[in-house]
Amino acid sequence: METVIIKGQSKLKINSPVFIAGLPGIGNVGKIAVDYLIEKLEAKKIADLYSSHLPPQVMITESSRARLVRNELYFKRLRKKDYLFFTGDFQGLTSQGQYDISFSILDYISKFNPNLIITLGGYQIGKLVEVPRVLGAYTSDDARKKLESLGVVFSKNEPGGGIIGGAGLLLGLGYEIFNVEGVCLMGETSGYFSDPKSAKQVVSVLAKFLNLDIDIKDLEDKAKEIDELTNKMMELPASEEKKEDLGYFG
Amino acid sequence: METVIIKGQSKLKINSPVFIAGLPGIGNVGKIAVDYLIEKLEAKKIADLYSSHLPPQVMITESSRARLVRNELYFKRLRKKDYLFFTGDFQGLTSQGQYDISFSILDYISKFNPNLIITLGGYQIGKLVEVPRVLGAYTSDDARKKLESLGVVFSKNEPGGGIIGGAGLLLGLGYEIFNVEGVCLMGETSGYFSDPKSAKQVVSVLAKFLNLDIDIKDLEDKAKEIDELTNKMMELPASEEKKEDLGYFG
Amino acid sequence: METVIIKGQSKLKINSPVFIAGLPGIGNVGKIAVDYLIEKLEAKKIADLYSSHLPPQVMITESSRARLVRNELYFKRLRKKDYLFFTGDFQGLTSQGQYDISFSILDYISKFNPNLIITLGGYQIGKLVEVPRVLGAYTSDDARKKLESLGVVFSKNEPGGGIIGGAGLLLGLGYEIFNVEGVCLMGETSGYFSDPKSAKQVVSVLAKFLNLDIDIKDLEDKAKEIDELTNKMMELPASEEKKEDLGYFG
Amino acid sequence: METVIIKGQSKLKINSPVFIAGLPGIGNVGKIAVDYLIEKLEAKKIADLYSSHLPPQVMITESSRARLVRNELYFKRLRKKDYLFFTGDFQGLTSQGQYDISFSILDYISKFNPNLIITLGGYQIGKLVEVPRVLGAYTSDDARKKLESLGVVFSKNEPGGGIIGGAGLLLGLGYEIFNVEGVCLMGETSGYFSDPKSAKQVVSVLAKFLNLDIDIKDLEDKAKEIDELTNKMMELPASEEKKEDLGYFG
């Protein structure tokens, strides 16, 4: 089979969309953020991506229905501006699979003439923080300037080792191969559990950046739940020294 | 070489068959069940599938003859209804290999316009049970309803982690890429040995579902043999606590 | 690059050759045997096979010259009968690589209309034996009969687990995909070192089978050297119990 | 995606260049040497190579800009003689990836009709030496003679196990598939850290061989720094016995 198969609606009229991607990864920050945007903006699914680079597996849904693992592309038009959202069950299992999937979705959306790529992810810092920062990397100078003014931290040292996986590849391949500039937003996260608090920070910045009106309350509620849970664990005896490093928590 | 090569008979007239697949896997339930159906229904082999995703190996037959490892497709017409059976020595060695082989056989049979895919497998529960349940997952609502009435358990929690390998992929790719609905039947099994008892349950349900007249006696005999063997082991001193969990038995 | 590249002489007139293959493997029996045949029969190289499935490496020759790792095809005509010999530095690194290389060389020689495939290898028994047996597996009934009369052992239990790697695949793919019958000859070997004694047995049987006049003396000399070496080790104190099992010798 | 994508300038007039390659590897000798040549000769980049065989990653530059990992091709004309330089962030992650990338860049430059391939690398000896030797392997007899007269050591025993990775493959594939002769120069290195001292020796020999006027001072300075650092570590108490083997230093 083709290593990537995209089943999409035809005859879509999408103009110079902003492409926003968040796949499973560190603290699941990117996926939580994009799934939240899809839900709150009521974006509509326009394509499924299947790939032999994903696990050879069907998921079982609530109704015990089987469905093949996939990545998904959603679309939303807001005040005459078009947005595409890319999420999914998994990232590619291998290095080559990650390239292949990232390239394929970029190739697929290139017909819509995207004008900006925004990838979302987590930046693992190995400890809990009160207010996670949002770090950035960019290929678009304009986006960088505006995001910096919104508090996003651009630093040559963070992330020091580069950005691995879809959040990096969609940005890199987008720029080098498809000539679309972009930016990557990474929410600080302990990385030890699925982190809605970090995702909330990312969504907040993104909403300001794109001038989107998004109700952030549900994410705040989930973030509070996690905060309470981790605070309780902190109060347990003999866990004092763990406050700084939750190594194997979650 | 092509990663999958199918050597099949030409000029076959097969109409809207039910495609039934059982490959080696957990408790070998799927393969035992399909091999039993092939034998009892005297289905005729119509194609061999060779693949570089299978082990690089020849098997040695009873007569010391060498034969390349393979998957096999059998055909049977019963009361004007056509059936295809898919079995084999191995599943694909890698994730990509599993996709490739599943896709290829689905592509091959798509010319016959299949109307239902049934994949058979085992569901590992890690202990012995008196009467294994048959669990189901589905993409066909009709099949689900009928199977549920026959006692098959459909649950969002079982199997919780989805269905991995050919039993999942043939169902998932069949539905998403080839537009053929289907169902997966999984017999409960300890998973510690090749399990004819579980296969018997699966075959019984399947026979009722498809209205096939299949003598189940040989499977019952094999199931009894295994039961006697495991009962003897249970009676050995100091094995009392193992009755519930046969971890490394077999 | 193409995963396999064969650089061969053009305009060769080769008619229905016997194809004899021995690649590195257990006890190196197959490769020693085929290399010996090439040397003694003064066969001429007619093709090099390069592949991305081989290690990414150049070898350094006696004169410090670098040469890419490869497999090689040699040709010899003897009394109007044609022979091809296949040897090499390595087998494919992966399962898929083994299929690819075996398929490619069979595809390459198919234009010469080969009439028999003979693969040579070692059969690991984990101990030293005075006179190694030669075991066989076959897809050619005729070859089996003749080889049995020459003392080759054909058994459903040996090798029980099938034949893995090139010795198996060339036989299996040759028969199933290229319609060429064949036989595999495996010399018993401890498997703990490169085993000229086992190779000698294989070459002796093969020479009789093919009616070839081959001076076996050099292999006998090397076999004696190994025998003397292993005998000396046996006589060392405290090594008595190791006579039966040389586990990590060599 | 294509496994290798080369984005290069068109309409380049390059005539029979010498192709000089140094990729990350043992002691990083090859990459340090080629990067130094590119800098000192002010060579100009003419192509970027991207590949799904490289890590799925963007690097973060000094200005926090993201850029996709890559290999790079540079060009310089000096006294009417053309030179190509090949460097990069990484080598291919797999054996097949190494073949693919080496083949692709050779294929790309073959249109310029290269007349010599020079690959640079490190030769790990596991200890510090005062003056690292430069070892050679060759497919060009002429280059070997000249290099031997410049002190390069050609030996069948060093490197005994052949040359692995790009330094070997570019030489081997260049000769066997693209009919371009070449030579590999390997600087002796402990292999425990990035080794400018070894790279200096390689660059010195290469400059003489190619009759290039290259200021070696910066490399000498870096080499001295490393020397001073390792000397200091040698003088630490209890480190006396480590002088010969710096196993885990660096």
Blueprint of the fold:
4 copies of one chain form a homotetramer.
Chain A lengths: L3 E5 L9 E4 L7 H12 L3 E8 L5 E4 L5 E3 L2 E8 L2 E8 L6 H15 L6 E9 L9 E5 L2 H9 L13 E2 L1 H11 L5 E8 L6 H15 L6 H19 L15
Parallel strand pairs in A: 2-7, 2-8, 8-11
Antiparallel strand pairs in A: 1-3, 3-6, 4-5, 6-7, 9-11
Helix pairs in contact in A: 1-5, 2-4, 5-6
Explain this structure to me?
Four copies of one chain form a homotetramer. Chain A has 250 residues and is of the alpha/beta class. The first copy, chain A, has one domain: PAC-like subunit (Rossmann fold), CATH 3.40.50. In chain A, 32% of the residues lie in helices and 26% in strands. Chain A is built from six helices and eleven strands. In chain A, the strands form two sheets. In chain A, strands 1-3-6-7-2-8-11-9 form an eight-stranded mixed β-sheet, sandwiched between helices. Chain A has a two-stranded antiparallel sheet with strand order 4-5. In chain A, α2 (95-109) crosses α4 (166-176). The termini of chain A are far apart. Chains in contact: A-B, A-D, B-C, C-D. Chains C and D meet through β3, β4 and β5 of C and α2, β9, β11 and α4 of D.
**Compute the gyration radius of chain A: what is it?**
18 Å
* Shape annotation of chain A: globular
Strand content of chain A: 25-35%
Which ranges of chain A are low-confidence, i.e. pLDDT below 50, for 5 or more consecutive residues?
Answer: 239-250
- The beta-strand count of chain A equals 11
Order of helices and strands of chain A, N to C? EEHEEEEEHEEHEHEHH
Tell me which oligomeric state these chains represent.
homotetramer
For the biggest β-sheet of chain A, the strand order reads: 1-3-6-7-2-8-11-9
CATH class category label of chain A: Alpha Beta
Count of DSSP-assigned helices of chain A: 6
**Separation of termini of chain A?**
38 Å
In the CATH scheme, what's the topology name of chain A?
Answer: Rossmann fold
Percent of residues of chain A in helical segments? 25-40%
Major sheet characteristics of chain A = 8 strands, mixed
